[in-house]
User: What shape does this take?
Amino acid sequence: MSKVIGKRVTRVEDKRLLTGQGKYIDDIGTPPNTAHAAILRSPYPHAKIISIDYSEALKIPGVKGVVTGKDVQPLLNPFSVGVSAPVKYYPIAIDKVRYVGEPVAVVVAKNRYIAEDALEKIKVKYETLEPIVDIERALEEGAPILHENVGSNIANHRTFHYGDVDKAFQQADRIVKHRFHFPKYSATPVETYGIIAQYEESTDSYTIHANFHGPFVLHSIMAGALKVPSNRLRIIIPKDIGGSYGIKAGIFPYIVLCSVVSRLVGCPVKWIEDRQEHLAASSSCTDRVTYIEAAVRNDGKVLGLKMKIMDNVGAYIRAPEPACLYRNHANTTGAYDIPNLMLDAYAVMTNKLPTGLIRGYGGQETYFPLERIMQMIADELEMDPADVIRRNLIKKEQFPYKTASGGVYDSGDYEKAFDLLLKTGKYEEFRKKQIEARKKGKLLGVGLAVIVEPSGSNMGYITIALTPEERKAGLPKSGCTEAATISIDPMGNVNVRISTTPTGQGHETVASQIVSEILGIPHDKINVVAELDTATSAWSIASGSYSSRFASMGSSAVYYAAQKVKRKLIKIAAHLLQIDEDSLTIENGQIISKTDPSKSISIKRVAGSAHWNPLSLPEGMEPGIYETAYYTAQAEPPDDNDLINSSITYGFVADLVTVEIDPETGEIHILDYYTVHDAGKLLNPLIVDGQILGGLVHGLGGAMYEELVYDDKGQLLTGSFMDYLCPTATEIPRVTIKHIETPSPLTPLGAKGLGEGNTMSAPVVIANAVNDALKPYGVIIDSLPITPNKVWSMINQSTKQGVSS
Amino acid sequence: MSVHKIEVTINGKKYQEQVESRMLLSDFLRETCGLTGTHVGCEHGVCGACTIHLNGSAVRSCLIFAVQVDGQEITTVEGLAKDGELTPLQRNFIECHGLQCGFCTPGILMSTTDYLQKNPQPTLQEIKEMLSGHLCRCTGYEGIIKAIQKTVDENNHHYEAERR
Amino acid sequence: MNGSGKVILNAGIEKAWDVLLNPQALKNCIMGCTKLEPVEENKYEAVLSIGIAAVKGKYESTIEIADIQKPNHYKLIVKGEGGPGSVEATGAVDLVPIDENTTELNYTYDAEVGGKVAMVGQRMLNGVAKLIIQDFFKKFNKELAKSEQSV
Assistant: This one.
């Protein structure tokens, strides 16, 4: 029976964070002789570096050294990446700059103030080249080429044919098609990147502290770049990270940069990124152009889909890209039963900031065209969008459901969740209100979106970027491994070590809940250690927090480690009490006989024996209590037909949004946002709702406010928070969250991951709502963000009647 | 760059330090005084993470120079809880899950504490407008708003109980 | 960013032309210009100190005068680079005589701004450009008056 897991337990992390005692990267102190770095960055999107003269910079008192690409190149390999295009990516420009903000030189000085003074004294001569930022134009003949040795701007290109797409399109009553554009935006954690890098010459090794959070496959990539064996690159992650939402995975080039700078300058180097650097040169999602075609029957059933996808990965394709294209590969058809799918997927390079993980990662880009086309199908067939959705939803009896591209949806009851949504959101009632409102000249709209939220990425999925023949030439990747270590010390106190490097999601609390329930100890007596040290923690390539994997993978590793500890404790207790193991159970800090409660022994005594009196242990048993569990779900590599189950568990999110639009100003007022979630078993409902709301506001930002805008000459125009607009408290709509739980059969606790769902769904559900409101004007919303001036222009340029007021 | 001697009281303690004229107050608090509870998120006055109290009023420490606070009184987030006893606002942040990564939290606590002292009974819209000077990317703001509303409600009951 | 405009100069066309191409006069009129020295025929090296939003700094620039059709038309090509970013601007100037003491000057300009100043000061750029131009012509009319006196 569940006593702690699933409860709204308040967080153990909170007290230190509320009293200013958090330990973020900039709080943890530095080795003696640490100096501070500032980075000179390219003002041009595309240019050759002719010369760099830093002689004046070196004269400033307090400057310890200046490093440029020429100094760095002999010490590094370019970063390896999972595509065959020979793109050479270094953490600093070598002979060319390819995006505004690309590092060109690094100054190391006594403090950041002096380092920034020195930046102004560095003279760089550039020869500007023609930039290219438009995704489709980058593919055209004659477009400027970023990487001469690649010969084109295509970093990766694959086509996939699942089912019988041609037949589906022949059998269709009509084809509904459109082009959609999804913008480039970020998630801008309030804490920026931070690194303390120290090179030790005597051992030719690097010790790094950084607010990096995985995936730890990037550790291998960093070691490869630094030309050191992996056990000579020690990365230590602090226990507090000020948010990330995927963006801090992109810190890895800077870790390598600061490492090699420390080596060249001869002292430890600390670098704390500032906000302008972050917006220009950290990481972001891809902007994407999608051409989608749906083969549709007149009753609303979609028989097949064709999608041509062009993802803009920025100036350099870097690991784990092109995962942006493939993270959602298994769930490309979303919540719908569509067995015929054609994908033509491009990763394209242009003179923009290189991309990486972000909350939603590929989901918002995938679902925008999909959920928009479903509404367009409804409009064309003159059906209610809710009916089109229902006609196509996967049915309860079909689970576990195999998708066209090889995904296996573990569990779900989509119709139940969708019905709950329509009921909670009073859909029918709103439709009636809408008709009345239109008569009065008011623009009310309602949008629907249903999406499948994947979690726990299968490490094999990235190899789908290679063809089956190319894959055969390399070693297969699989699994989604996570590890946890639980130990009991001589005084009987519990330490739990996790490798999921939390960035605010409350892993310490949830881990303590799980261990508390299994070992029968109060959760606040359990110490969860969230710091990760690649030299001493248990970790693997999939470790880290990304892809919402804690609830599915991280919690499972903790669960199994706790079970190992429980078994050992019971074994020892059975031996000490001289009774049968099977008759023992743990509760309230005691190991107690199920049948005779007088026979009991405290966990403290049992653990104590393992340390103080190991000779009292059962024959052959190791002293101490220290158990590590490595856990993976069955996550297989792609097969020769390119079928891949890219994630382990799949949740479901259904959204209903109502809006009112002011026809005079184009202002969009969100009246209500209803969302129904199915994330399997919820481990801590308090934390769950926080994650959902956070993800929703990230999605809201992408829908209406946030965009990294580049002009057609490649200049970044939104370089500060004055122009890059993040939603504040006054922008958030009224949100109603409802849950249903169809547990996952694949994880020991039945939990699926969550936290990215609404980031994937909010942009498209808001677009659908606005589109619905503007239906009298015949507009089609096919790009984001939706801003008042865009809406106003659409209304005023429309040739249709619109509404009279 | 000229260096100045300043004397400033922070959380009731006197600090006497030498600072360059251009040193930001946020850097002074964190690096010179070792009070790392105040966080830096943008250095251009938008995110609010650096908010502290200067002579009792909430201000952005990234937009002030250390020399400007010579002879003044500052309270940072470390100075809110007295003798390890959390304030009602801090306790309600725990109850209502008003923080996740915690990076924006100190600034929000400082702004809210100042605001509620001067406006003890704000409406929901007023709370949101007060918060609009702070960026939080984790919580979606709802937990924060709930924590503030709970604190306001508890204060109201407190006053009413005292009046009786 | 680009723009255009028209100004009345209080001098005849020949006089206006001469002062427009006088480097000392130009140095006095360009806001923030702390150095303007000829390096070649019709090419000058200049240092401009300008602040846009919070981004202040020095731009080491070259100013080239091209397409010279005395006294009616010339082009200005300005390339500047500094800590805050880079500017590349071309301007076309056309003079039309009104009477012996008045000339109409028509200008158009096209400017590419890059780097930090573009990232942070986008919304200010047009305003600052207008300000610099307005200030230039205000000071220029003063220069014209000064040179009138010295004759």
